[in-house]
């Protein structure tokens, strides 16, 4: 039996009837296998062209809708809240930030429970950690705190309770790299603050709690005081030549500012130092410390009055007695 195809009487490229699957499949009684016949490709193309599904343009993918619009009603450009039934604005589906703000702060039926992230302190960023470490290091240096205290367990726990991101430096870093960098920063600040101003260099020789000989070099400029250096002289004798050379070295280090005066003790050795340095620095005034002068005046006065000297000795004995007896010393204080 021959294959029957639908006849096309109209020149319209879209046929009124599309061949069915039964018309395209030959009868098995004719001895023809169904695999021999293939559907006409032209009719399939024509059928797709006439199908409204294929005639529509592809849908454009626009901006994703904000989920906040699911909680409001938009009617006649009036946006009202579904929860509290209050009007948010009358501008239609615009100003989404106002809608978000309503649910965040104004809606009386908004959720009041905190988010789980609000229960934990925010992690410090690298910038804040660096700023914290810098201020913490300056606290160590300005108060004279021992560097090994940074590893104290109580301090670590206290800072961890505030924020887990508070990272502390080690005692070795405080004594080496951080100390050098902080000294460099402070020196730059000092240079800018005292540049062009008259200042005084104070030399103070003393003995620390360990019995070591120390010389402090302090710079005073107006109301500001700067500790320049602390020199442990060790077994070196504090002779006039040594002190003069060391003072000259410090003056050359801080030559960016003008030194108007140099203050030392009033000993005979220091007076010889003044004479030695006066030739090299004729515009600098070298003089003794007024506190040391008062101390020497009192000593000379006590030495000339026997009764006052005896009184001084008795006062010293009384002080030593109280210091040796802990209970009496505590009551006296």
UniProtKB/TrEMBL annotation:
<dbReference type="Pfam" id="PF04937">
    <property type="entry name" value="DUF659"/>
</dbReference>
<protein>
    <submittedName>
        <fullName>Uncharacterized protein</fullName>
    </submittedName>
</protein>
<keyword id="KW-0863">Zinc-finger</keyword>
<dbReference type="InterPro" id="IPR007021">
    <property type="entry name" value="DUF659"/>
</dbReference>
<keyword id="KW-0539">Nucleus</keyword>
<dbReference type="InterPro" id="IPR012337">
    <property type="entry name" value="RNaseH-like_sf"/>
</dbReference>
<dbReference type="GO" id="GO:0005634">
    <property type="term" value="C:nucleus"/>
</dbReference>
<dbReference type="InterPro" id="IPR052035">
    <property type="entry name" value="ZnF_BED_domain_contain"/>
</dbReference>
<keyword id="KW-0805">Transcription regulation</keyword>
<feature type="region of interest" description="Disordered">
    <location>
        <begin position="1"/>
        <end position="65"/>
    </location>
</feature>
<keyword id="KW-0479">Metal-binding</keyword>
<dbReference type="GO" id="GO:0003677">
    <property type="term" value="F:DNA binding"/>
</dbReference>
<dbReference type="GO" id="GO:0008270">
    <property type="term" value="F:zinc ion binding"/>
</dbReference>
<keyword id="KW-0804">Transcription</keyword>
<dbReference type="InterPro" id="IPR003656">
    <property type="entry name" value="Znf_BED"/>
</dbReference>
<keyword id="KW-0862">Zinc</keyword>
């Amino acid at each position: 039996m021959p294959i029957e195809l639908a006849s096309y009487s109209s020149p319209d490229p879209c046929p009124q009837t599309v061949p069915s699957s039964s018309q395209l499949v030959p009868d098995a009684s004719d001895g023809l296998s169904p695999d021999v016949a293939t559907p006409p490709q032209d009719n399939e193309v024509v059928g797709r062209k006439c199908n409204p599904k294929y005639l529509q343009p592809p849908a454009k993918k626009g901006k994703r809708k904000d989920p906040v619009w699911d909680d409001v009603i938009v009617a006649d450009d009036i946006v009202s809240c579904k929860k509290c039934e209050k009007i948010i604005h009358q501008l239609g589906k615009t100003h989404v930030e106002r809608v978000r703000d309503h649910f965040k702060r104004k809606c009386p039926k908004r959720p009041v429970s905190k988010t789980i992230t609000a229960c934990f302190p925010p992690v410090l960023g690298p910038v804040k950690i660096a700023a914290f470490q810098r201020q913490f290091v300056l606290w160590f240096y300005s108060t004279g705190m021992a560097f090994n205290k940074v590893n104290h367990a109580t301090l670590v726990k206290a800072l961890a309770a505030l924020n887990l991101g508070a990272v502390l430096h080690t005692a070795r870093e405080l004594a080496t790299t951080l100390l050098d960098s902080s000294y460099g920063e402070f020196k730059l600040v000092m240079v800018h603050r005292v540049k062009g101003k008259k200042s005084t260099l104070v030399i103070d020789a003393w003995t620390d709690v360990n019995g070591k000989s120390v010389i402090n070099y302090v710079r005073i400029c107006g109301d500001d005081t700067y500790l320049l250096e602390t020199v442990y002289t060790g077994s070196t004798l504090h002779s006039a030549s040594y002190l003069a050379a060391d003072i000259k070295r410090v003056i050359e280090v801080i030559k960016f500012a003008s030194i108007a005066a140099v203050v030392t003790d009033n000993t005979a050795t220091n007076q010889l130092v003044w004479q030695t340095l006066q030739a090299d620095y004729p515009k600098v005034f070298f003089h003794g410390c007024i506190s040391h002068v008062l101390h020497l005046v009192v000593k000379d006065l006590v030495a000339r009055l026997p009764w006052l000297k005896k009184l001084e000795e008795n006062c010293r004995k009384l002080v030593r007695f109280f210091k040796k007896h802990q209970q009496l010393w505590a009551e006296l204080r």
